[in-house]
């Protein structure tokens, strides 16, 4: 790629295939030029465009809108990777991060953000575990020019486990004053973010889940969200304990209870849903326009493969895909969402009374792009169209092991054989963040080295505690 012109953000991407939006639908078009000026796509034309010196040769690739991750916990994404798969929980590896300096915290954040961006993600919907984690996320995102919606989970991570895994509901009721303080702290952080001139990073509110809140704290979150804008980001119906707690305390399952409180009378981004009432809840969520985020990439510790993508499709919900944590490869997320959804339907459709629709790769690509944009109410994201932001990713669909040596006739299907290693270029807001598979938003070698040192410190702390020597406990945290 050469850049011999006035603006370093003006270029043409010459695509072998491109998933273009025409008349509100995503269609594949072959041999097109995507013209980018400053931060926007200004034209998409057949063939080559004359008069532009800066060109990106993607003639053997598929160009897609940049992926939107509807649910991330970026800072603490990787500390538990490779450690919890035998049945341990991730609380101790993640707790080690709480004593990190800001520099160490940023090194871990940067490593995780690099992985996610390198796999094609251009927008993060980030739920940080604390204000400190959120500040680390914002520092790295702003330095790199990454697009993000960031929130702070309430209750904060240092208080969450005590409330979440309580054996006495008095713990939740007694937690209300401190949770109200957490809400105010998250609101003030968000107001500061939204007052900045940086329109790439915006703030929203977040809650952990229905079982760690009361009507009083949910009302406070709703009021805070109205001041920030951009909605509320939540986990919803994510565990059987959430269902049991809501039924025990409030006499309803989580979705019905939140509806009864008017919590859905606002923009809501809800991750997981794998313990919702599959017959009744989709209609409630559809009625209120609640957005569903399907997270397929996390380790099986949280049973992510069982999330109800077929039911969400059949219910007409707006669907987004999210990284969540541990597995940061967005391409794998697309693949697993498709395959796990098909498997779920094959196993359950005979006996389930819920409506189901078999997910196809076109459905999960739409969720990764347009679905995420609709969730954020951003008509300028998730699309390859004139007037849209120049957020895109370029995927090699010809080389081994995903391709067959030539430009294929149905390139979306080749994504089922691809991973983040097939992503060649990533652009955010008209600027290349990944070029030829290499992170260029920052020094990739330094990001990997410093991230590795942060991980080594976590392992050393666990070693001193004897964490590796103890047998994995029974997986009873459902």
- Let me know the number of strands: 17
Taken as a percent bin, the fraction of beta residues is: 15-25%
The CATH homologous superfamily of the largest domain is named: Metal-dependent hydrolases
The largest β sheet comes out as: 8 strands, mixed
Q: How would you classify the helix and strand content by structural class? A: alpha/beta
Instruction: Compute the CA-based radius of gyration.
Output: 22 Å
Q: Assembly state here? A: single chain
The helix count comes to 14
Mean pLDDT: 92
Distance between the termini: 51 Å
Uncertain spans, ≥5 residues at pLDDT below 50? 1-7
Helix content: 25-40%
CATH fold field value of the largest domain:
TIM Barrel
Domain count, please report it: 2
Describe the structure.
This protein is an alpha/beta fold. The chain has 14 helices and 17 strands. Strand 6, helix 3 (131-144) and strand 7 form a beta-alpha-beta unit. Residues 1-7 have low confidence and may be disordered.
